[in-house]
């Protein structure tokens, strides 16, 4: 089985996480304290930050794997959620948001019963995390390098430790966003 095929090319990649590029300035766009700068909208703690990881994942298809540019993002202003944008640098990005807890649980075992399911696996000696997203009758499955997911989660946990999400909620911001969406 081949780990990943480059988009638009017929060459095959060597199995394992070498097939998953990551360009994220040390695993995150949060270099130093830049991502932790307070901007006055940090909820109860007054601290707001973001963690972003840009990487390549492999879209699982009938004929093999296709590399897809992807961005994982976490914002302490929405402390329970992560967002993932597939095809990030194309005209057709595909954005999904789901619970950070789901991503963390899926790193250990099959998690999720709805439109998003996440589970760990081994492919030819490399640990990967599969993320399945469903919209209507369409289902897409991607494989991400487990170390990329681990690093991303570790940095989100440094910003907002698990169990402390409620302290980072900015209720005023949430109400404003809900009112803007209903208008």
Automatic annotation (TrEMBL):
Its main location: other. It comes from the Bacteria. InterPro entries: SsgB, SsgB_sf. The keyword Cell cycle applies. Keywords: Cell cycle, Cell division, Plasmid, Septation, Sporulation. Residues 15-48 are annotated as: Disordered. Pfam families: SsgA. GO terms for biological process: division septum assembly; sporulation resulting in formation of a cellular spore. This is SsgA family sporulation/cell division regulator. It comes from Streptomyces cadmiisoli.
């Amino acid at each position: 089985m081949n780990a990943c095929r480059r988009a638009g090319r017929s060459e095959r990649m060597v199995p394992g996480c070498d097939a998953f590029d990551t360009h994220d300035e040390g695993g995150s766009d949060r270099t130093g304290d830049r991502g932790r700068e307070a901007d006055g909208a940090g909820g109860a703690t007054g601290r707001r930050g973001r963690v972003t990881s840009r990487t390549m994942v492999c879209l699982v298809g009938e004929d093999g794997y296709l590399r897809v540019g992807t961005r994982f993002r976490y914002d302490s202003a929405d402390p329970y959620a992560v967002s993932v944008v597939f095809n990030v640098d194309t005209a057709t990005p595909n954005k999904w948001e789901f619970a950070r807890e789901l991503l963390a649980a899926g790193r250990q075992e099959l998690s999720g019963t709805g439109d998003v399911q996440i589970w760990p696996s081994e492919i030819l000696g490399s640990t990967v995390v599969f993320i399945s997203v469903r919209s209507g009758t369409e289902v897409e499955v991607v494989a991400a390098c487990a170390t990329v997911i681990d690093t991303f989660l570790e940095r989100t946990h440094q910003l907002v430790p698990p169990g402390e999400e409620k302290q980072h909620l900015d209720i005023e911001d949430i109400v404003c966003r809900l009112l803007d969406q209903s208008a």
